[in-house]
Amino acid sequence: MKYPTIKSVHIIDDNLLIVEFSNRESRKYDVTPLLNKKMFSELSNPAFFKNVKIDQGGYALIWNEDIDISEYEIWKNGTPI
User: Fold this and answer.
1) What does pLDDT average to over the chain?
2) Considering the entire predicted model, what is its pTM?
3) Rg (CA), the chain
4) Which domains are seen in the chain, by residue range?
5) Which is nearest to 74 in space by CA: 57, 52, 59?
6) How far is CA 39 from CA 8, 34, 68, in A?
7) How does residue 2 score in pLDDT terms, banded at 50, 70 and 90?
């Protein structure tokens, strides 16, 4: 199955995102569980977290060359809204 791509992202608070997909559905995604992993620890910094961008193809949210979250992860583990 091909998952929809990311069209927009909105920051709700220091750990919470609202992500809209190409099929017009949205998911609320909490990054808090990821903060325990060293790779994602920088996301606990509110200023850094707010620098989120959408990958050019809509396949991920990216913060820098080392930190990204795939559209699959957000689609499967986000809460539909």
Assistant:
1) 95
2) 0.92
3) 12
4) 6-80 (3.30.2020.40)
5) 59
6) 23, 8, 9
7) confident
In the three-class reduction of DSSP (H, G, I as helix; E, B as strand; rest coil), residue 5 is classed as coil
Residue from 71, 77, 13 nearest 62 by CA: 71
Tokens describing residue 48:
């850094």
The values of phi and psi at residue 3, to 5°, are: -90, 150
DSSP secondary structure letters along 47-67: HHHTT-EE-TTSSEEESSSS-
Tokens representing 57 are 């193809």
What value does the mean pLDDT take over residues 54-68? 96
Per-residue model confidence (pLDDT) at position 70: 97
